[in-house]
Design goal:
The complex is a heterodimer of chains A (116) and B (111).
Chain A: E1 4-7, E2 10-13, E3 19-25, E4 32-38, E5 44-51, E6 57-58, E7 67-73, E8 76-81, E9 90-97, E10 105-107, E11 111-115
Parallel strand pairs in A: 2-11
Antiparallel strand pairs in A: 1-3, 3-8, 4-5, 4-9, 5-6, 7-8, 9-10, 9-11
Chain B: E1 5-7, E2 10-14, E3 19-24, E4 32-37, E5 44-49, E6 55-58, E7 61-65, E8 71-76, E9 85-92, E10 99-101, E11 105-110
Parallel strand pairs in B: 2-11
Antiparallel strand pairs in B: 1-3, 3-8, 4-5, 4-9, 6-7, 7-8, 9-10, 9-11
Classes of the chains: A mainly beta (116), B mainly beta (111).
């Protein structure tokens, strides 16, 4: 149980385009999902917390207009990187918890983004 | 800023050796998780510890939560090449909802 999927697994795009990444909880409902960014050989950096039916909470330094998050249902959250630039190239990972008080996070397989 | 330091940062050992990874903080955790991440994949949950002093075993992996719930360790016995990966500790500090991730320990087990 507690399987989280991400799509696409990797994407290459031109500078200036927008890219949407989907995160789905396959066998459970996720009230809360999280979006992380990870640079090579580094730990995970939380970008935002996504709550179903409400606005996402962004971490300090993360531009909410650049990284649009939509948590449309209890099983789907999307991250859209708008007007992507080469410095946005990274590994983006989502996670979900089983309940609002659950602290263990279950991670998706990640999405590798390369902006040319 | 609450920090979660892991040590060592990198570890390269021969197959069959034992090793310990440490996760330290100056703040108290509500709970603590250990994850393993392989290149190009998301982290996979290994264990969650909740009670101070708790010890959990997962085959050759032994996890310990400090009595004061500020630190944790992961001990691997007779490491195998399949143990290679990035080990991450993570947890919410007491009173906070947000989960903080450790700095990570990259383990390489050489056959």
């Amino acid at each position: 149980g507690a399987v989280v999927s991400q799509h696409p697994s990797w994407v290459i795009c031109k500078s200036g385009t927008s890219v949407k990444i989907e995160c789905r909880s396959l066998d459970f409902q996720a009230t809360t999902m999280f979006w992380y960014r990870q640079f090579p050989k580094q730990s995970l950096m939380l970008m935002a917390t996504s709550n179903e039916g409400s606005k996402a909470t962004y971490e300090q330094g993360v531009e909410k207009d650049k990284f649009l998050i939509n948590h449309a249902s209890l099983t789907l959250s999307t991250l859209t990187v708008t007007s992507a630039h080469p410095e946005d190239s990274s590994f983006y990972i989502c996670s979900a918890t089983l309940g609002s008080r659950e602290e263990t996070q279950y991670f998706g397989p990640g999405t590798r983004l390369l902006v040319l | 800023t609450q920090l979660l330091e892991q040590s060592p940062q990198f570890l390269s050992i021969q197959e069959g050796e034992n090793l310990t990874v440490y996760c330290n903080s100056s703040s108290v955790f509500s709970s603590l998780q250990w994850y393993r991440q392989e290149p190009g994949e998301g982290p996979v949950l290994l264990v969650t510890v909740v009670t101070g002093g708790e010890v959990k075993k997962l085959k050759r992996l032994t996890f310990q939560f400090g009595d004061a719930r500020k630190d944790s360790s992961l001990h691997i016995t007779a490491a195998q090449p399949g143990d290679t990966g990035l080990y991450l500790c993570a947890g919410p500090f007491a009173g906070y909802q947000k989960v903080t991730f450790g700095t990570g320990t990259k383990l390489q087990v050489i056959p």
